[in-house]
């Protein structure tokens, strides 16, 4: 059963992210991670952290749209 709150990724995007994790650990920490370790890190990020980033994006979009709507009211003619 899938959790509806979990962010779903395409196979291609998941592979790209796993590759990015592997590259990061190699370049920044000098550690070579395998596919399994990188997959587990990605899964942790998705399950534990991603919803916070998603929710922040929703909030930022809401604030941006509200600011634009207020700008729209400024062009009213009296």
Structure description:
This is DUF2164 domain-containing protein. It comes from Clostridium kluyveri (strain ATCC 8527 / DSM 555 / NBRC 12016 / NCIMB 10680 / K1). InterPro entries: DUF2164. It holds the Pfam family DUF2164. By secondary structure, the protein is mainly α. It has one domain (11-73). The protein is built from two helices and no strands.
Return the average pLDDT rounded to an integer: 90
Distance between the termini: 57 Å
- Structural domains: how many: 1
Q: In terms of structural class, how would the helical and strand content be classed?
A: mainly alpha
- The H/E string reads HH
The outline comes out as elongated
The radius of gyration computed from the alpha-carbon positions, rounded to a whole number of angstroms, is 19 Å
Spans of at least 5 consecutive residues with low confidence: none
Major beta sheet summary: none
Assess the beta-strand content as a share of residues. Answer: under 5%
Helix content: over 70%
What is the number of beta strands? 0
Question: How many H/I helices?
Answer: 2
